[in-house]
């Protein structure tokens, strides 16, 4: 198997790994406002997240930036809580997905934090030598994995909201509140306390 294919596959597997479900929660929290018809907006969100985590993933994997891993593992659920909480506390009249760029900012900035979390995993796999190809492949794998997660989520949201008639706001609030609760549990279980 080629190096590129190996790290591409590792990227997909890493993001889809249910033992590291915190990244899945963040992606779903970002997408809680959207349904299948909003796929372009969601694709931009996922790409913004990838851009953010690609930067810090590269910097940390190449040992240009070093941050305490316990701090990063604490900050990741904090980013999930903030993202989900923003949807929960969004005002009714501002509920439209077309207003503002808050989620795009969250996706990019919080992606920087998540990239530092990914770097511990990737650094443990990489040896010395040319790191450009493995980094690129791993990031592309993560992007594809995120698109799979989002596609599944949007399909479920579309079925429930459009087909079954579930109120869109109630769906988004329910998903976001559940994710916020899970994020609080992750924060409380963190070693930093």
From TrEMBL:
Keywords: Membrane, Transmembrane, Transmembrane helix. It comes from the Bacteria. Signal peptide: none annotated. The chain crosses the membrane at residues 20-36, 43-65, 71-89, 101-122, 142-164, 171-188. The keyword Transmembrane helix applies. The keyword Phosphoprotein does not apply. This is HupE / UreJ protein.
């Amino acid at each position: 198997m080629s190096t590129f294919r190996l790290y591409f596959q590792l990227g997909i597997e890493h993001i889809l790994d249910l033992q590291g479900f915190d990244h899945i929660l963040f992606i779903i929290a970002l997408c809680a406002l959207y349904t299948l018809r909003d796929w372009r907006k969601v694709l931009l969100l996922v790409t913004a997240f990838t851009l953010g985590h690609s930067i810090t993933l590269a910097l940390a994997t190449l040992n240009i930036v070093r941050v305490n891993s316990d701090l990063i593992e604490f900050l990741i659920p904090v980013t999930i809580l903030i993202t989900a909480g923003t949807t929960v506390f969004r005002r009714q009249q501002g509920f439209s997905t077309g207003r503002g760029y808050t989620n795009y900012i969250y996706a990019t900035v919080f992606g920087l934090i998540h990239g530092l979390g990914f770097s511990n995993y990737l650094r443990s796999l990489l040896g010395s030598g040319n790191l450009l190809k493995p980094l690129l492949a791993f990031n592309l794998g993560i992007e594809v994995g995120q698109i799979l997660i989002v596609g599944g989520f949007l399909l479920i949201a579309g079925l429930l909201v459009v087909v079954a008639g579930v109120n869109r706001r109630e769906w988004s609030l329910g998903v976001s509140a559940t994710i916020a609760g899970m994020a609080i549990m992750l924060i409380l279980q963190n070693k930093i306390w």
